[in-house]
Structure formats: structure tokens, C-alpha cells
Amino acid sequence: MSVPEVIINLWDYADEEQQIIVSLAGRAYIVQGTDEEKTALLQKLAVTDFVMTALYQDDYGEIHVLGA
After folding, report:
1. Fewer CB within 10 Å, N- or C-terminus of the chain?
2. What is the pTM of this model?
3. In terms of pLDDT, which residue wins out, 28 or 60?
């Protein structure tokens, strides 16, 4: 059996007008299995991981990620 390993779903939030990434969000898991099994799990969870975050802009114009 394989050793448990940290895997992470990451996604970026981009300012398309300026063509830059303004923030990154991610969600980590500790799992074991083959690389193919881990990849399949991350792909399956990406759909729900993404909607669990929210962006907000503070009074200084900085963008932050909540829930990541």
C-alpha cells in the first residue's frame, strides 16, 4: 500500500483586462493511491472545491480569497 501524500487542487483568479493573475486559491488533501487515482480524485473534487471560495475586494482595492 502506498504512503499517504499531500495533494492540492489549485486555481487562479485572473484580471483578464490586465492579463495578470491577481490571486491563487487551493485546497489540500492527504490521500494515498496511485498517481492516476489521485489525479482522478482532484478532478472530481475540483467542481466543488472551486465553489467553496469567494473573492472580495477590501477598502484598499486588494482582492482576497475567502474559504480557500
Report:
1. N
2. 0.68
3. 28
Strands 54-57 and 63-66, bridge-based pairing? antiparallel
Owning domain of residue 41: 5-66
Please tell me the total count of domains within the chain.
Answer: 1
SS (H, E, C) the chain: CCCCEEEEEEEEEEECCCCEEEEEEEEEEEECCCHHHHHHHHHHHHHHHHHCCEEEECCCCCEEEECC
Place of cell 466543488: 48
Give the span between the Cα atoms of 14 and 12, in whole angstroms. 6
How crowded is residue 31: how many other Cβ atoms within 10 Å of its Cβ?
Answer: 13
What's the whole-number average pLDDT of the chain?
A: 84
